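Branched-chain amino acid transport system ii carrier protein
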Amino acid sequence: MNKEMKDIVVAGAALFAMFFGAGNLIFPPALGFLSGTSWFFCMLGFFITGVGLPILGVAALAKSGGSLDRFAGRVSPVFAKVMGTAIVLAIGPFLAIPRTGATVYEIGIKPLFSGVSPLTASVAFFVVTLFFALKPSSIVDKIGKYLTPVLLLIIGLIIVKGVASPIGHPVAKGLTQPLGRGFIEGYQTMDALASILFAGLVLSAIAAKGYKTAEEQISLTCKAGLIAGTGLMLVYGGLLFLGATGSGMFEEGISKSDLIVSITNTVLGSAGRTAMCLAVSAACLTTAIGLTAVVGSWFEKLSHGKLKYESVVIITAIFSTLISVSGVEKIVTFSVPLLIIAYPIVIVLIALTLWGSKLSSAVYKGAVAGCLIVSVFDALSFLKVDTGAAGKLIAKLPFADAGFSWVLPAIFCAVVMELIRTTMHHKPLNQSTMPKS
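Predicted structure tokens:
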């Protein structure tokens, strides 16, 4: 294997491991359990948002030079900073990072060591996270070379054995709109949001290995993304199928954490608990390390060095430790409205960035505005807030049942803004301002 291919594989493995964290482990089996015989269509929807979007996000950010300012700045520089900060906080100390710590406790520690408190487990977990995250220059190599192989070995063992000898047969669960449900559930991985931040980390690591030209950096980052995406599809598909085979075995209402533990114990027997402890710890640790490093880098750059990377990383770890004690289910519930608002905007920005650089700023502004208006109403509806006539109108939009009510408004607003820009640009001069002959 030549140096370039080796660097691509290591970067791809690291990217896979950073993506594959708490949500990626617990949501596919839960979706399979919920869908039963409809698991295949749920899987396709989940692949779109859980695999396709993150990889496209990596490509879009690589095309933007790894800069979130360039990625979202076509809307406005202020929007780019506000959006970036919101995403960093969401996938950082407020939601995703604490979720990794909570998942390690509920799935990896509690079944084996019931006497360990959530706080003790969280403190230990984030101390290890800090050990890796305090040296950002070596994060990609450490994750790609050491943690990813452990993670893949354990998860692969569970999936291969579970697929070769299914624990049961999928049963009909009466789920409507399985494709749309899988699409929405893919939001919960938060990987499309994380991709626009992880891409910069991978791009920097590739540049540090001596690849100086933008073309080389973009090419290698995209190839690393494809490797990560392939791994995610294989793992997600396997875990979702395992959940479907258990759809007739476990009681309705079982929590996501208890479901994956029960499946693993059934598949691997007495060794299941230990294997799951190691798998969860590796999966969540890799994600926590990557996200913590991203938070530190973002706020150091945003403050122009006034906030030091090391200080931000330490504060993030402490804050995440405290939030993680609230548990996985509460963190997941709290995250849904935010994801309903943020995901469509990120999807639109990824699509427009990959579409081409010739699109005007007006198109970006219109598309984001259309997304934001509809997504806010969707989030309010999720929270059971009465949105009146406007909410009823949005619910009747095409594709609303599948979770895509924002698509046509985004296109409509983008076209309107572009027409306004074109009209203003070609507006004839007033007679009083025209030069005299």
